[in-house]
Amino acid sequence: MALALTLGRRGQGMTWPNPSVGCVIVREGRVVGRGWTQPGGRPHAETEALAQAGAAARGATAYVSLEPCAHQGKTPPCAQALIDSGVARVVAAVEDSDARVAGQGFAMLRAAGVTVETGVLDQQAMRDHAGFFLRTEQGRPLVTLKLASSFDGRIATATGQSKWITGPQARRAVHAMRARHDAVMVGAGTARADDPSLTVRDLGVAQQPVRIVVSRHLDLPLMSQLARSAAEHPVWLCHGPGADSERMQAWEGLGAKLIPCAVDGSQLDAGDLLQQLGGAGLTRVFCEGGSALAASLLAEDLVDEFVGFGAGLAIGAEGLPAIGAMGLDRLEDAPLFTLSETRQIGADILHRWTRALK
Ligand code: AOF
Ligand code: ZN
C-alpha cells in the first residue's frame, strides 16, 4: 500500500478533476503490475496495473490507494475490470467520496466473491486525496499557501523590490511544489509587480498547472508574460462584477478563461472564489500570494497547508508584509496550524504547517 500511495502521488497536479490513485498488484509475494492515474484523469490506476499484470492477476492481491470505481464512465468500472481479471483480494486505503462510487465499488467486488479489506494506511491516503475529497464534499479545492519572506515576514521592500529574497534551491523547491498542484494562483498586485510566468520549469512535467490571477477589476497589463503565453498554457482570471468589458474581451481573445466571482467588501469573496474553482474541476491550488489574497484566504480559514520559506535577512516595518490585514481582534479567532515539517533548503528554512481542526 505504501508503494501504491507513492505511485498515486506521481500524478498529483495532472489528474484533476479526478483523484490521483496508485495501484500495485502482487502475486505470491511478487509485484506483477503497477499503475497510477494518467494525466487528464484517465486511464485509471487499476487499468494501468492490470494491463501490466495480464494473466498474472489471477488469484493475486490488488492494493489501491482509493476504492475502485463502480460507475460506467468513459471507461468501464475498475471494480468490474478487477473482477474480470480474476484477482482474489482487493486492499483499498479509503472509500471514494464520489457519489457514483461511495461504497458501491466494494459492494460490486464482494458480490463477485472478491475479498475486500479497507482502512490500510488510510491517514496517508486521506492526506494524498484531500483535494479530491474537498472538491466532492465541500465543492472547493485544497489550498496550499506558499510565502517566501525575510525573517521579519516581509515579501518586498517599500519600493517593491522582491527579487530575490530566497535562494535558488528554495525557488527550485517551489517549482516542484507547483508541479504537484492543479493550479498556481496569485493576486493582481503580485501579477503586476512581478510579471510572473507561473510555469513549472526544468522539471519535464507532462502538463503545466493552470495559472490563476485574482483581479477584481481585471486591471492587468496585456503586455505581460501571462498574456504572451495564455494561448499555450491555461490562464484563468477571476474577476468581480464591474470588470471592464474591453479588457475582458482582450483577455478572452488571448485565450484566457474568465471566471466571475462575488465580492465581499473591497475584494473578491474568498469562499465564492474557491467554489468557482472547485466547480471548474480543480482539486489542488497553490497560492503564492500576495499579501491581500493570502490574508483573505486565511481570514476565512480556507488555507489547508501553509508552506513558508524564511530567508536570512531583515527588511523592516516599511517593507510589504507577507500577510495583509485580516481584521482580527481576538487571538481565539486566528486560523490555527500544526507544524508538520521543518527543513533547511540551501541558505533558507522551509516550514510546513497543516490546518488544525479547532
Ligand atoms: C479509480 N481509479 O485511478 C481514479 C478513480 O470520469 P471518470 O469516469 O474517469 O471517473 C472519475 C471518478 O473515478 C472520480 O470522480 C473518482 O470517483 C474515480 N477516480 N477511480 O478506480 C482511479 N482516478
Ligand atoms: Zn476506476
From TrEMBL:
Keywords of the record: Hydrolase, Metal-binding, Multifunctional enzyme, NADP, Oxidoreductase, Riboflavin biosynthesis, Zinc
Cofactor(s) this protein cannot do without: Zn(2+)
Single GO MF annotation: diaminohydroxyphosphoribosylaminopyrimidine deaminase activity
Enzyme Commission number(s) from the entry: 3.5.4.26, 1.1.1.193
Pfam families: dCMP_cyt_deam_1, RibD_C
Protein family: In the C-terminal section; belongs to the HTP reductase family. In the N-terminal section; belongs to the cytidine and deoxycytidylate deaminase family.
Protein name as catalogued: Riboflavin biosynthesis protein RibD
Organism: Ruegeria spongiae
